[in-house]
Design brief:
The protein is mainly α. It has helices spanning about 5, 10-30, 40-60, 75-90, 95-115, 125-130, 135-160. It has one domain (about 5-160). Helix 2 (about 10-30) runs antiparallel to helix 3 and helix 3 (about 40-60) runs antiparallel to helix 4.
Length: about 160
């Protein structure tokens, strides 16, 4: 592992990574811990702020220039911004099921899903984590994909038992 590529990256990428890495760790913690407690609310607000910073900083990253400097990945950033607003609105309305659904979507889609692709060859995080290795990133992305599918299927079966 080397941080050299990240240190030489544009400031927007550095801000993006500085927000998304703690968001990934904090999000996992929040998903695993008891909900509705004062600490959950406080850490949840911090997590949402990190997600907004992550999404906003992405609009200044133009590595994949498909349409006037933007790419389909920027659609995820728009989804994250609306999702953050929706998560807050639903929590305030005490619509906890919608709040949970949005938060899971933000975490697994916005962090895990989108984050997996940053480890593919040619991307900065690939150089940081694997020093440009060609095979290891595919194994990591496949492993993340399998883990996400396993967690989603586990949740689907739990929902079916409750119905």
């Amino acid at each position: 592992m080397t941080f050299e590529p990240l240190l030489h990256a544009p400031i927007a990428i550095q801000i993006h990574v500085a927000a998304v890495v703690p968001a990934a760790v904090l999000g996992a913690y929040l998903l695993l811990r008891p909900k509705g407690t004062p600490i959950h609310r406080l850490l949840g607000k911090i997590w949402l702020c990190l997600m907004v910073i992550t999404a906003l900083s992405s609009f200044f990253i133009h590595k994949i220039n498909m349409f006037y400097g933007f790419s389909p990945i920027h659609l995820i950033s728009i989804y994250v911004l609306f999702g953050c607003w929706g998560a807050i609105a639903n929590a305030r309305r005490h619509n906890i099921e919608a709040h949970k659904r949005i938060i899971r979507g933000l975490y697994f889609g916005g962090i895990v899903g989108a984050g997996a692709f940053t480890f593919l060859p040619g991307r900065i995080m690939n150089e940081v984590a694997f020093e440009g290795d060609e095979i290891a990133p595919f194994l990591v992305v496949a492993g993340i994909g399998i883990a996400v599918l396993w967690m989603l299927s586990k949740e689907m079966w739990a929902r079916r038992r409750l119905s």
